C-alpha cells in the first residue's frame, strides 16, 4: 500500500516540478540572452491556460492515432520520471520507455495529413535513430563498467564518476544525447519551428499541446535525473539531502546542456545532424567499448 | 613372341594412323587414318597366335601332339576385320551423304554442333 | 521358367535371341507384307518378350543366384560364357524396359516411312547392349559393343540432316578409336595370359605388371568414351540431341551405362592387384572432373537436349565416383544411381521430346510455357528425381553416393560433388520455370504420352518403394537399412492420420470451387497434427509456432483472387505436413527427407506466378546450397557415429555443419542475400509461410545442434557476432527498402538473427530467443498478412505506387500498429520482453558489442516498422477483412505474453530440460531479477501506465473540448491534402537512404559469383569445338595421361 501512495504522491508532484524546471530553464535562457525572462512559474500558468483553450483540429485528423500518440508520449516521459526519482526499475526498460515516448511523437505527427507534420515525422525519426545510437552505447558501457542493471543497484556507490573514471565516456555521450532528446536548438530538427512549423505538433493546440509540452518537460527532468543518478550523485546521500542534491545538480545540468547549448548555435540541417551523430559520438562510443574490453579482457 | 622390330613397326603404323586421324582436315582422310589404325591392330592381333615352328591349326589335319599356331587370335582377327569393314563402309557412307547435303567433306566445315 | 525343358540358365540366352530375331524378321516380313505398321508390332513383340525374360532373370539374380549361360556348349575359359550378375541383370532389364517404352514412343514420333529400317536397327542396338551387359568374355564384350555402337551410329542420324550426319560421323570415328583401344588392350591381355575370359584373367593377372597396366589403361579409356567420361565424351553433346527423342532416351539411359558396366568388369579384373587403389583414385578424380565439367557445360546451353546430354555425362561422373570407393555401400550407390538415372533421364528425354514435337524447336526459350500438361508433369518427375529431391528415388541414390564417397575418400570430394550438383539444380530449376510459364498449349501424341506416362509412373512408384531400390542395389542382400533407414520414413498412429488429412485437404483445394472448404479443412487438419504432437517437448513448441504462422496465412488466403490460388494452398498444406514430419522425428535422415520435400513444395509455390518464377529459381538454388551443407553434416554424422539419431549430434563436426547451415538459412550475414528472392519477391502468403513457419524449423535444428554439441568457442563467437551484424545490416536494408515486402523481408531476417544470437549466447538470452521466435511467428507473419491485404486491394506492394493510397480497414490498421510495436520492442508487449531478455543474456555473457548491435537493431526496427505503418495510413478502404481474425489473435498473444509471460517460460523450462539447458526464468526470477541483475517489473510498469493514463484523463477532463473543423493551412492557403501531394516517406529518407546504396551494393556479391560461374562455364564448354581432330586429340591425350598416371 505504501508504494502506491508513493506513486500517487510523486505522480502528482513530479509533473509540477518538471514544469518548474521548464520555467527555470526559460529564465536561464532569458538571462543569457540579456532579457529578464518570464517568472519561473510561467510554465504552470501556460499549462493551465492551454487546458482552457478551445482548439480546432482539422476534420480529417485520425483521433485514435493522436490519442494513442499522446498517451505514449506522456507515459514515455512520466514513467521514467517516476522510476528515476524512486530509484526503482531496470535501466534498459527505462531506455525503451523513453524510446516509446519518441514513438508517441511520431504517431502524433502521423495523425495529421499535413506535409509539415509528415516531414517532421521523417526528420524526427532519423534524428531519433541518430542519437539513440549514442544513448545505447552510453547505457551499455555504463552497465559493463559498473555491472549494475537496475536503478537501485546503480545508485549504490560513491560518486560514480570518481569511482569509475571510465564512466566519463558515457557521461560525455549523454551530454550529446540530452539536447537532442529533449529537443532544443541546434538539434530540434524534428520540431523545427521556423522550417516546418513545429513538425508533428503543427496542428495541435489546447489540451493536446498542454500534454505535449508537459511531456517534453518531464522528459527533460527525467533525463537530467538519470544522468545525475548514474554519474554524479553518490548514493550515500539519503533522505532530504538526496532530494536537495538531486534538484540542485539537475538544475546545473539543465543549465549546461540545455540553456547554454540552446543559445550557442542555430539549428542545423538533418543531414549535418545525422552525419555528426553517426560519426563523433559513435566513434567515442566505440572507443569506449574497446577500452572496456581491453580492461576486462576479450575473453568470451 | 615375335621380334621387337616387328612390334615396333606395328606400333609405328598404329601411331601413323592415329596421327593421320589427328591431323586430317578431310573426312575421308580421317577414315583412312582410322583404317590404317585398325589394320595395324588386326596384324597385331593375328600375330599373337604365333608359335615358333607351329603349323596351321586346322582341326582335322593336325594331331594333338603337333605344335600348331594359336587359332583363337585368328578367329578374333577375322571378326575384327569384318567389323572394320562395316565401320569403314558406314563412315564413308556418312561422308558421302554429308557431301551430298552440304557439298563439302572438309572437317573444318563440319562444326555445326559445338559448345 | 528356367527349369523349363531342362535347359536351366540357358534360357537367358533368349535375351539376345529375341531382339536379333526381331531385327531379322522386320525387313524379312516387310519384303512380303508391305505394311510398315507390322514392323512396329514385331518390334514391340520381341522387346516385350525380352522384357519378360529380363525381369525373370533379375528376379533370379536378386534371389542370390548368378546365372551362367554357356554358349555352344564350350566350357569357359576356352568357350564364351555369360555371367549374369546384378550389374548385368539390372542393366538388361533397364535396356528392355526403356527399349520397350521407346519402341511404343517411336510409333508416335518417327515418321512411318522409316519404320522398317528404324525398328530393325533399334533391335540390333538392344541386342548389342544386352550382350555387353551380360557377357563374361572380353572379346565378346568388344563385339557386342561394336554391334550396339554401329546401330547407334545409324540411329543418331535417323533424321538425315547435315547436323545429325555430322554427329553420327564424329560418333563413329571416336567410337572406332575407342574400340580400337579396347581391342588393343584385349590383345595385350591375351598375349600375356592367353585367355579372354574376364574371371579367368582376374585370377591370372599380375604376372606382367607393365603389360597389365597398359592394357587396363587402354581398356579404361576405350570404355570411358562410351561411358561418357570427360574429355572422351565430346561426341555425346552432338549425338544425343541429334537422335530422335526415343533414341536419345535409349542412348542416355542405357547405352552409356554399358561403358560403365565395362569399367566394372575391368575393376573386377584388377581387384586383387597392388595397383588397384591407384586405379580407384584415378577413377575418383576422373568422375569428379567429369561431373563438374559436365554440369558447368550444361549450364549455358540453349538447346534443351544438349543440356540434358551434358547432364547425362555429369551423372555418369557421379556414378563413377561412387564406384571408385568399391565398398559395399559405394557399389550399391552406383547400382542404384544407374537405375535411377537411366529411368529419369529416359523420362526427361521422352517428356521433352513431346514438348519439342509440340513446338517444333529444341530451343529452351522457344519451349517457354509448353509444360503445363501431362508431358510437363512427367518432365517435372524426371527432373526432380535427377536433382535428388524427394519423394522421388533420386534422393536415395544421391544420398547414398555422398555417404559412400565421404566414407572412403573424405570431405573434399564430397564438396566438389555437391558444387556440381548445385549447378545442376540451378539449370534444371530454371528449365522447369521456363516450361511451366504461361504459353501456347501444345498437342500431345497418344503413343508418346502413353510411354512417357508409364515411365513416369514407374519412377514415382519407385520413389515410394525404397525397399525395392535397396533390394536391387544390394543384389538381394538388403544390407542398407542402417545407411538408408527408409522404414522410419513412414509416420504412424494418429500423426499419420493428421498427415493424411492434410494431404486430403490439399487435394480438395485443387478442386475449383471447393478451395475455401479445402483451406478450412487444412487448417483443422494442421491443428490436429499439432495436437497429436502436443506435450512439453521442443518439437511440440516449434510446431505450435509454425502452426500459428500457417494458420494465419491460410486463413487470410481464403480471400484470394488469383488463378493459381488453389495450387498455392495445396502446396502449403503438403508443405506443412512435411514440416510436421520434420519435427516429429528423431532421425536426422527422416528429417532430411522431409526438409527437402518442404523445399520442393516451396519452389513450386513460386512457380504459380509467372513473374515470380525466376526468383523462385534463385531462392531455391541458394537454399539448396545451404541444404547441402546440412546434408554433409548428416552424412558426416552417420560416417562418424554410425547413427542418424539426433542425440548423436554430440559429434561436434556434424553439429557444427548443421548449425552453420541453419544459421545461414535464418539469413546470417553475409549469406543473407537469398532474402531478396525468397521473401521480398515472393507472394505475401508464400513469404509469410516461409518466414513464419520454415524459419522456425531452421531455428529448431539450430537449437538441436547447439544443444547437443558444445560448439567450439571461437565458432560460437563468430556466429554470434555475425548474427549481430546481420541484425543491423538487414535492419538498414529494411529501412531503405522501396517495397513493403522488402521491408518485411529484411525485417524477418533481422529479427530471426536476434533469435540466432540468443540461442548461441544461452542463459537468459535463450529464453528470450524462444519468446522472440514465438513473437516473430506472430508479428512478422501478421505484417505479411497485412501486406497481402494491400496486394489484394491495390495490386502492388511498392511504396512509390502506394503513395497517397494504401489505406486499409481501420481494424486492420490498428492491429498492425500493435504488431508493429511488438516488433519494435515497445513495452509491455512480448517483443520487448524477449528483446530485454536477450540483452540481459548478452550482457551476462559479456557480449557487449552484440548487445549494442541488437539495441541499434531495435531502434532500426522502429524506423522500418514505422515506414510500413505509414504506407498503410491512407484513406481506409474495404478489402481483406478476413485478416482481422488472425491479426486479432496475434495481437492478443503478443500483448498477453508481454504482460504475463510466465506460463510460456514454465512450459519452455520443461521442454528444454532434457537438453540440459536451463531457462533461468521463473516467476520469482523475472520479478526479482535475473542472475545479472536485470528486472522486468511488469507490475510496476502496468501500475505506472495506469497512473499515467489516469492523469492524462484528468487533464483531459479538466480541459476545454476540441472541435474538429476546417482544413490544414499551409503556405498562405488552405491545403487540400489529396492523395498525391502528401509526400510518401520514401522520398523523405534523405539522408539515410544514400548510405543504403552502399549496403545494397555490397549485397549484390552473389550476382558476381553467378557471373563468374557463367564465365567459367562458357570457357569450359568451349572445349567442344566441333572439330573432329580436336576430339580425337582429347582421346589421345587422355590415354597418355592415364597411362602415365597408372605407371607411376
Keywords:
heterotrimer; B: 115 residues; mainly alpha; Helix Hairpins; 3 helices; 0% strand; elongated; C: 1048 residues; two-stranded antiparallel sheet; 5 strands
Describe the 3D structure:
The complex is a heterotrimer of chains A (300), B (115) and C (1048). Chain A has one domain (47-296). With 300 residues, chain A is mainly α. Chain A is built from 13 helices and 1 strand; from the N terminus they run H-H-E-H-H-H-H-H-H-H-H-H-H-H. Chain A is globular, with a radius of gyration of 19 Å. Chain B is mainly alpha-helical and 115 residues long. Chain B has one domain (4-51, 69-102): Helix Hairpins. The mean pLDDT of chain B is 88. Mean pLDDT of chain C is 87; it is low at 928-933. Chain C has 1048 residues and is mainly α. In chain C, strand 4 (968-970) and strand 5 form a beta hairpin. Chain C contains 40 helices and 5 strands. The chains are: A mainly alpha (300), B mainly alpha (115), C mainly alpha (1048). Chains in contact: A-C, B-C.
Summarize the structure.
The complex is a heterotrimer of chains A (300), B (115) and C (1048). Chain A starts with a helix and ends with a helix.
SSE inventory with pairings:
The complex is a heterotrimer of chains A (300), B (115) and C (1048).
Chain A: H1 2-32, H2 42-52, E1 55-57, H3 63-86, H4 91-110, H5 115-146, H6 151-154, H7 160-163, H8 168-182, H9 193-196, H10 206-232, H11 239-264, H12 270-277, H13 280-296
Chain B: H1 4-23, H2 27-47, H3 71-102
Chain C: H1 14-32, H2 36-62, E1 67-70, E2 81-84, H3 86-109, H4 115-134, H5 138-156, H6 162-193, H7 198-204, H8 209-226, H9 236-242, H10 245-270, H11 276-299, H12 304-323, H13 328-359, H14 374-387, H15 394-409, H16 411-435, H17 446-463, H18 466-473, H19 493-510, H20 515-532, H21 538-556, H22 565-583, H23 588-607, H24 613-641, H25 652-665, H26 674-680, H27 684-708, H28 713-735, H29 740-761, H30 764-794, H31 810-824, H32 830-844, H33 848-871, H34 884-899, H35 902-912, H36 923-928, H37 938-958, E3 962-964, E4 968-970, E5 973-975, H38 992-1002, H39 1005-1021, H40 1028-1047
Antiparallel strand pairs in C: 1-2, 4-5
Helix pairs in contact in C: 1-2, 1-4, 2-3, 2-4, 3-4, 3-10, 3-13, 3-17, 4-5, 4-10, 5-6, 5-10, 6-8, 6-9, 6-40, 7-10, 8-10, 8-40, 9-10, 9-12, 10-12, 10-13, 11-12, 11-16, 11-39, 12-13, 12-15, 12-16, 13-14, 13-15, 13-17, 13-18, 14-16, 14-17, 15-16, 15-24, 16-24, 19-20, 19-22, 20-21, ...
